[in-house]
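Running this now, will post back.
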Amino acid sequence: MSSDSKRNSFNLQNDDVEGEKILTEPIYPSGFVKGTILKIDLRMLPLLGLLYAIAIIDRTNLGIARTAGMEADLKLNIGDRYSIASMIYFIPYILLQLPGNLALRWLGARTWLTVCVVGWGVAQVGMGFVKTWGQLCIARVFLGVFEAGFFPALVFIITTWYKRHEVQTRLAIFYLISIMLNGFSSLLAYALTLLKGKGHLAGWQWIFVIEGLMTIILGILAFFFVPDFPDKNRFLTSEQTKVILDRVERDRGDSMPDEITLGKILTHLSDWTLWAYALMFMCSTMPAYAIGFFITTILHAMGYSTTMALILTAPPYVFATVSCFLFAILSDKTKKRALWLSVQACIATVGLLLTAYAKPSGVRYFGLFLTTAGTSGCVPSVLAYQANNIVSHSKRAVWTAVTVAFGGIGGIFATTVYRQKDFPRYLNGIWATIGCQVLIVVLCTALTLNYMAKNKRARDGKGANEGTPGFYYTI
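Update: finished.
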């Protein structure tokens, strides 16, 4: 039986809560289900979180290396060289997102993720041996090529394992692991700069070489431990696998993959709500990238020494980790997405205003705490919001890729609006970032009104959302 016919054969009740389906089917023993979910959590989230943390560190350690002497050695302070070197990574990163997600099902998760991780690890090591600004740009292009297929693959994989209102907490756990480790990456980078002179390499070169070698090793380990899609996994028993597939089927009716065709891709791309999610993700990642690239520079401009600027980078990320997790729990418990996403965008806006206009350095530094917390929390919030309102693997593959690609556009946006000539306050960049937070709230409002109308129509028996009787959008 096809997944579509299987989905429509279920006997659904209509007295469900918003965004859920309730089926008149027997349920599994709760202890068995909880044990299975815990096994998946432990197998998947720490490893994928670590891999994504390495990805974030490798794409944003340019700012730390700049502070550690790369700017002088490669003459990055001439014109917009640093912004261009930061931005050029995102061109292949954006263009290769969708092809990467289409290749994912063909090659399998383990093979695809290993190729991505080892590939960008090699590019990272190469950045440690560049001699000119142009060579740095070439290495950054290859970094973007191999990282392009990585993050959308992770999101795609995670969202196929869980029910809709379990997704944001899992995405948050996976993402907060990366936030936490990324916060301490500056301390690791500072320690690596102490190798200055060893092997005739500068301190900033050792940052790229050691972190690149760590990435390559993790990429090799990923081949042996990364879980695949539920229907292809090898670490659960057949009964546990059936539990997972049945839970997903009861929740949204797409436990088994459907065929990806050109017609389906074009249909999925024609839905305006996809582009709303994509814009929201761009608005979420733009400040996240800006902080990663410029936080040490901003702290240095506040009067802190290079050492203190690197050390003070970590605490805002620790605070963001806690905030991100708490909002994820709130969102999953209340089964509300747009509300908590908007609240976090407002928190980021307050933080940006404090960093831009407060007089005392301590208050401006506190603004970085709020900004980092608000923007970091928006990233998994947007992904969960989108994932909750998708049915079918083909649509999930297309939408995840396009949305994450717009995250790359957010990276380009960040590197171009935080201009060298605006140093040290970067007011133009900060106001552009505030504009992104306002747009998030506007789009959340539009999606909420749209989904409320469609859910009402479905309850009145005037049509089925996503072609699936009993499916209601998560607001």
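The chain has a mean pLDDT of 85. More later if anyone needs it.
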